[in-house]
Amino acid sequence: MQAEALALSFASTPLSAVHTSDLTRALKTAKAIHAAQPSPSTVPLHSDELLREQYFGAAEGKSFKAKRNKDMTLVEHFARGLFPAVYNRTERFPGGESKDEVAVRAQRFLDEVLMPYVWQEDTGKANSSPIHVVVVSHGLFIPELILLMTRKDEAHNAKNEAELRSNVRGMRNTAWTRVEFGFQRVENPRQGSDDSDVQTPEKALRLKFLNVKVHPHLHNLKRQTGGISRLAHDPAQKDIRSFFAK
Fold first, then answer.
1. Is the pLDDT of residue 28 over 70?
2. How, if at all, do strands 17-21 and 45-48 pair?
3. 158 pLDDT exceeds 50?
4. Which CA distances in Å does 58 have to 66, 82, 174, 180?
């Protein structure tokens, strides 16, 4: 029901492409969005392993309620079939992925798949209609992708990353965020061949969050509890828009 409601809310937006994780839940949502388009046959639908959720390896389907024994290494916990939660960006369960490894996948998707759409719009190769690309993925992957997207903005402030990372968590199922890439004309002084200052026009890549964690399509549906993966949703989390307020 959530996927169908989301699809209807996007039906009036002409999409250029839909990119989705090939895992069942995301793929079902993407197919619903695609099918609701006025002319689905003209909208490419791509499934991609790069958009998969973080893989937990031996801990898939296991409980993370076990507390760490300070007298045991993490490996010793795993050997006993205990899978306490991992908190830093480099730790991972046996055969699984760390947060940093998920970020590597997200970076590949951003550079190899999303950014070509941006450059296409900039070089004028796109048609007269705006490019709208839908990306369907998962609760642990999406924050990694969003953070990497903010780094493409030439006005990005690295000092805000830790707080930003915390506040992009906790998205509801099928909630969506709209990000707009654009170019801002700037004038940068550069040294000329005669040692005089000259003004060279350039374009700076900028990013805007137009909508964040939007879910009006769920208002008439029964709410499902939970946040990201097995983490509960925190209603006290800040809105990401506060980081981009002018």
1. yes
2. parallel
3. yes
4. 15, 10, 27, 38
User: Cα separation of 62 and 82, whole Å?
Assistant: 9
**In which residue are the tokens 């549906």 written?**
221
Task: Tell me the C-alpha distance between 37 and 15, whole Å.
Answer: 8
Give DSSP secondary structure letters for 74-92. Answer: HHHHHHTT--PPP-SSS--
Chain position carrying tokens 């004028």 = 124
Provide φ and ψ at 49, rounded to 5°: -65, -25
In whole angstroms, what is the distance from residue 53 CA to residue 117 CA?
Answer: 23
Residues 6+ apart with CB under 8 A from 211: 176, 177, 178
Cα within 13 Å of Cα(77), Cβ side: 22
User: What is each CA distance from 147 to 90, 144, 207, 230, 231, in whole angstroms?
Assistant: 17, 5, 11, 21, 19
pTM beyond 0.90, yes or no: no
Is residue 212's pLDDT more than 90?
no
Of residues 124 and 141, more confidently modeled: 141
pLDDT band, residue 9 (cuts 50/70/90): confident
| Nearest-5° Cα angle at 98, 92 to 99 | 140
Mean pLDDT value of segment 185-192: 60
The region, left, alpha or beta by phi > 0 then psi within -120 to 50, assigned to residue 48 is: beta
Which one, of 134, 164, 135, lies nearest residue 148 by Cα?
Answer: 164
